[in-house]
Amino acid sequence: MADCIVVGAGISGVLTALELEQAGARVILLERDRLGAESSWAGGGIISPLYPWRYPDAVSQLAQYGQQHYPALLDRLQLESGIDPQYHKNGLLVLDQDEANQAIEWARRWQVDVQKLNAEQTQQCEPALNRQAKAALWLPEVAQLRNPRLVKAMSAVIARRKISLFEHSPVSAIRIKNDRVQGVSVGDKHYDAEQVLIAGGAWSGQILKQLKLETTIEPVKGQMILLKGVPGQVKRIVLSAGRYIIPRQDGRILVGSTLEHTDFKKELTENAKQQLYQAAIEMMPALAGLEVEHHWAGLRPGSGNGVPYIGKHPAVQGLFFNAGHFRNGVVLGLASARLAADIMLQREPLFDPGSYAIEAEH
To answer: Average pLDDT, stretch 206-229?
Structure first.
C-alpha cells in the first residue's frame, strides 16, 4: 500500500510526486498516456505568464516563486538525469502597447523589471523585428526552457527515485468509503493509498466531476508550429496580439499558439498553421520562406481566471487536487507542487492556500 497516489504525470504531477517522495512518502504515479506527453510536452516553455499583469495576484504569487527557483531545480534535474532542459534567460518583448500603464503598475507592485522601449530601442533589442514596430514593453528577466527536454529529464529522474510509475493507466474511479479515500481503480486493477492527488491536466475536470465537484477546468486546444531557422536569427521571445515567437538555442523558432475549445480533439488544421506562419512573418519578415519543420497540438487544462485548484476535497478525507493551470503549467508548476505537498503533508504552507481552494472563485 502506498502513502500517496498522484493521478497525472505532467509537470505538476511529477514535481508533486518528487516533493512527496523527498519527504519520505511512498508514491505511486499513474498516467493515462506517457509521462509528460500532453500539455507538458506541447507547450512553449516560457517561464512567465503571457501578459502577466492580466492575471489575479494568486497567479503572480505562484509565478514569481517559480521564476526564482527554476534555475536550481533544473540544475538538479540535469545533474541527476544528464539531460539539459536548456534554460535560457533571453527576455520577453511585448509589442502590444494598450496595456502599458497596467503593466508598469503591476511591475511596481511585484518588483518586476518592466521597461518601456521606444522604436529605436525596440529594434536594438530585437533586430529581426518588423521595422514598423514603434515601441515595446521589455521584461529582461523572463527565461524559457525546452519542454520536451524537461519531460525527458523528469522521466529519467523518476526512474531513479523510489516512485512507482505506471503509464498507459487511465484512472476509471476514485475509491471512497465513509467519506475517506481508499485509492483508485484502473479498469479492474486497484491501487490502495491513504492519500490521492488529482493532477490530471485537461482531464482533471472530468475526474473531479465524478466526485460531485464542479470546476471550470476544460480542455483548450493549442496548435503550434516550429520553423527551421539558424542560431541567432531571433534573439528574444516576442509577444504580439496573443501570438508569440520563441527562439531555441539550436536555431529553431517556435510560433504559437491557438486557443480552441474543441473538447478533447487534437486534430491539426491547415488554417491554424497558416495563421501562425503569417503572424510570425508579420512580426519578423525575415522569417518568410523558413521551412515549417513541425506542426502539433496540445490540450491545456483551461480554467476560468487562470488560478489553479490546489488543495483538499471539502468532504472526502485524503483527497487532494493540483490542476487547472491553463497556459501556465511550466511557470506555476513548481510552486503548485510545493504548495500541494505542503497541504498533503500538513506542513506550513508555502502560501495561504485559500485563493486556490475549490470553494474560491476561479
So the answer is: 89
- 55-89 exposure pattern, b = at least 16 Cβ within 10 A, e = fewer: beebbbbbbbbbbeebeebbeebbeebebbbbbbe
Distance, CA of 328 to CA of 65 (rounded, Å): 13
Measured CA to CA in angstroms, residue 337 lies from 17, 165, 251 at distances of: 8, 17, 32
Pair type for strands 115-117 and 136-139: antiparallel
Domain ranges of the chain: 2-81+147-216+304-356, 92-140+218-302
Class of 2-81+147-216+304-356 per CATH? alpha beta
Question: What is the model's pLDDT at position 125?
Answer: 96
Q: Do the strands 180-186 and 173-177 form a parallel or antiparallel pair, or are they unpaired?
A: antiparallel
Cell of 331: 511557470
d(CA 265, CA 273): 16
pTM: 0.95
Cα–Cα distance measured from residue 174 to residue 333, given in angstroms and rounded to the nearest whole number = 24
Mean pLDDT of 274-301: 95
- Among positive and negative, which fits the CA dihedral 7, 187, 299, 320? negative
C-alpha cell at 15: 514535481
Close Cβ partners of 337 (under 8 Å, ≥ 6 residues apart): 12, 15, 16, 18, 19, 322
Q: Grid coordinates standing for 264?
A: 478533447
In this predicted structure, the answer to whether residue 362 has a pLDDT above a threshold of 80 is no
> What does residue 93 show for φ and ψ, rounded to 5 degrees?
-110, 115
Q: What are phi and psi of 230, to 5 degrees?
A: -125, 150
Backbone angles phi, psi at 307, to 5 degrees: -85, 120
Superfamily of 92-140+218-302 according to CATH? D-Amino Acid Oxidase, subunit A, domain 2 (3.30.9.10)
Instruction: Provide the 3-class DSSP secondary structure of residue 295.
Output: strand
